[in-house]
Design a protein that fits this description.
Chain lengths: 565, 171
């Protein structure tokens, strides 16, 4: 198996695509240039409109999303949008922002995120009631608050209350809405500046300046400040109005997002800054405003229900993973409310009324938590260790849960061979055989738990052991050239070895007590020693010894020679 | 790869010069990838042309995060173009759909021979082999583009080779 994979690999490695020549490239580029050279004027809201054509949402909701995305990355604005409560003018934006965040998240996280936002919505419901009793702003501090707003700073603790115009708490609320509005506009301005649209940024700054000036000039006169960010069909209106006595001054910024669907080009529409004097602020007008506001909310709910239907349809086509209990508990659907000790299930548009009566959102007894028993977590591989011999290797490892495994190994990092361990357990052992000695092998472990989640370890390696040398050197071609007082003894060894010689005149020669020895530590195949000062006409007995690099020592039999006269 | 980010941003602002630079750098990858799908060089050039034109248009909706994501985005467009190419060639004899010719000589046509068998593998295995051997990427690079981790890419590559071998032996 190993060899054949490498075979294919080398054929694949030989595949080479002849690249385009410079001339061919030039021709290609000219064709591309023709294809892209359509004239278009792109203005910032057109860019945003385009960026949402890939999401399957209703048009008017998409419009609102366009502006919401401008705020991405600016945490101040989002903090306020997050705190917007059901019933606030800024609430629709808060939900829409969630929708963007969710749809931009990778699919596998979406279920979790929906649950997180749903829980948050329920917690926010509980906060409303707390806000009512503790955070009331008195009218004497209005001036201070208005002055704070005029300098562009944002109050630290938001106050929320869906009360009436006469209650001081509303002023505090409006102040917070105003600061949120200014923050939104500042975020839009930052985005425009970053994308190089300085004239757009300038227009926004003008709007901000006018709004702040309007508020600060009214600061000492106990104004009623209303700040709103509202979406209509193709337009997004940001309004700040201050009412002193019965005179209302309004600054309105309208962002027109209408796209001419018949042409790719779009004409730029000037930002409209309208400073109007005076409506008569009487109760009828206020009722109309509220009614308009509720109509918008209802329209929004409708869109949201359609969205949910679309989303449900989309879910059916997707992978099975995240369906089931992590459903979308959100706007347009029914939610639980604890009403006088009983948990009831009502539509979201009725929630506000209940909250005003002292109910709170969520079931009466328990907090909502979601638990899962579905194992989606892959096993964790640890404690990888290997022991080797020249031709085998044993590899062991642990997993934090029962898992089967496949171990891929080979002499290259493309592996080539594998073993399967089909018993699901937490400690595994793989025995590899038929390996080449003194060679580095690379391996990787793929562990799979019973639920099918698998994990792959990093690439590890081991080196097989060297085959030990256990053969002792042997001796051959032993020769002695002798004269009367000298002799040269020479011999060969079967492998590189050191040379040692014991000699004496007595036989048998006992090595440990041999009278004379000669030795040479360097390893070689040919050895010789020249002996001097020998006695004439005497028989000398000698034994040879040699030690190889592995430490094996060979000893020869006893030999002899006789010197001359 | 800050340079790529800047080029993409400028291209989004409709800067032709910046887009040309992107083309110069990335054309080889797209072209070789197209070559791993089609037999004829001219067809691969057409696909490359269409891919870059579409890329220009799609940049409006694209927000740049990492180079790998951008390459992945580009390959996605290339894949769509290749799919459309096959649809329009339905009546012709196409590479993927034809019978494996038993008497096919390997010598000078190994590229095409390999491609025929690769075309019978699953999508995942095809992709990793095309990116590795035609687009010339290291497994680590291909992993990032496919959105998987390196270990998984190596395993998938190993299995793809094994499967390819099996297919070629059992032809």
């Amino acid at each position: 198996m190993k060899n054949n994979n490498n075979d294919i690999e080398s054929r694949l490695n030989n595949v080479s695509v002849k690249p385009l020549s410079e001339q061919e490239k030039g021709v290609l580029w000219r064709k591309i240039e023709k294809g892209i050279a359509t004239p278009e004027k792109v203005y910032f809201w057109q860019k945003i409109a385009d960026s949402f054509s890939s999401f399957r949402l209703q048009t008017s909701v998409a419009v609102a999303l366009m502006v919401a995305v401008l705020f991405s990355g600016t945490s101040v604005a989002f903090a306020y949008a997050d705190s917007a409560q059901p019933g606030d003018a800024l609430f629709p934006l808060s939900v829409l922002k969630e929708k963007i965040v969710i749809s931009l998240a990778p699919t596998k996280n979406q279920g979790e995120m929906r649950l997180k936002y749903a829980q948050k919505r329920i917690e926010q419901g509980n906060t409303i009631l707390a806000g009512l009793s503790t955070n009331v702003v008195t009218s004497t501090s209005t001036r201070a608050l208005a002055a704070t707003i005029a300098t562009g700073t944002v109050p630290a603790t938001p106050v929320y209350h869906g009360g009436s115009t006469s209650s001081p708490a509303v002023v505090g609320d409006a102040v917070n809405r105003l600061s949120a509005t200014i923050a939104y506009l500042q975020a839009i301005k930052t985005d425009l500046t970053n994308s190089g649209n300085t004239s757009g940024a300038q227009s926004i700054q003008t709007a901000i300046d006018k709004m702040l000036a309007q508020v600060s000039s009214a600061a000492n006169q106990n104004p009623v400040i209303v700040a709103k960010v509202q979406e209509h069909k193709n337009q997004f209106n940001i309004t700040v109005s201050t009412t002193i006595a019965s005179t209302t001054t309004t600054t309105k910024l309208a962002l027109n997002t209408k796209k001419d669907t018949q042409r790719v080009t779009i004409t730029e529409k000037e930002n409209t800054l309208v400073t109007k004097q005076v409506f008569d602020e009487n109760k009828k007008n206020k009722k109309d405003d509220d009614k308009k506001y509720n109509d918008n909310n209802r329209k929004y709910d409708d869109h949201d229900r359609d969205d949910d239907r679309d989303e449900r349809d989309n879910e059916k086509d997707k992978d099975d993973d995240k369906k089931g209990f992590l459903g979308w508990i959100g706007i347009g659907k029914k939610i639980n409310v604890c009403h006088k000790g009983t948990t009831i299930n009502i539509s979201s548009s009725a929630v506000n009324a209940h909250l005003k009566h002292g109910d709170r959102t969520g079931a009466c007894t328990t907090t909502t938590t979601a638990t899962t028993t579905v194992d989606t977590i892959a096993p964790v591989i640890s404690g990888i260790a290997s022991t080797v011999t020249p031709t085998t290797s044993k590899i062991v490892w642990n997993t934090n849960e029962n898992a089967t495994a496949e171990l891929l190994y080979g002499t290259t990092t493309s592996f080539g061979s594998s073993v399967t361990l089909s018993t699901s357990r937490t400690n595994q052992e793989a025995n590899l055989s038929g390996l080449t000695a003194d060679t580095t092998y690379h391996f990787v472990i793929v562990a799979k738990d019973p639920s099918g989640n698998s994990a792959t370890s990093t690439t590890n390696s081991f080196k097989t052991a060297v085959v030990p040398d256990t053969t002792t050197p042997t001796f051959s071609s032993i020769a002695v050239a002798h004269a009367s007082e000298t002799a040269t003894v020479s011999w060969n060894t079967s492998e590189n070895a050191s040379g040692k010689m014991y000699y004496g005149t007595a036989t048998p020669l006992v090595l440990s007590t041999a009278p004379y020895t000669r030795s040479e530590n360097a390893l070689s195949l040919n050895h010789s020693f020249a002996l001097t000062g020998l006695a004439t006409s005497t028989t000398y007995y000698f034994v040879l010894e040699g030690k190889d690099a592995a430490g094996n020592t060979g000893t020869s039999t006893e030999h002899q020679f006789t010197t001359g006269a | 790869m800050e340079k790529l980010k800047i080029l993409v941003e400028r291209s989004k602002d409709r800067d032709h010069e910046a887009f040309r630079e992107i083309f110069e750098v990335l054309e080889p990858r797209v072209f070789s990838y197209a070559c791993s799908h089609v037999e004829r060089r001219e067809d691969a050039m057409d696909i490359t042309q269409e891919t870059f034109i579409d890329l220009w248009k799609a940049l409006k909706k694209f927000s740049y995060r990492t180079p790998e994501e951008f390459y992945g985005f580009m390959f996605l467009i290339a894949k769509k173009k290749i799919a459309r190419f096959y649809k329009s060639k339905k009546n012709d004899v196409s590479l993927e759909g034809s019978e494996i010719d038993e008497g096919f000589t390997e010598e000078h046509e190994d590229h095409r021979f390999l491609l025929r068998h690769i075309g019978t593998l699953s999508e995942k295995y095809q992709e990793i082999l095309r990116l590795r051997y035609w687009s010339g990427m290291k497994l680590a690079e291909a992993a990032k583009i496919l959105g998987i981790d390196e270990g998984t890419a190596k395993v998938r590559h190993h299995r793809a080779l094994a499967m390819l071998r099996t297919r070629m032996e059992n032809r």
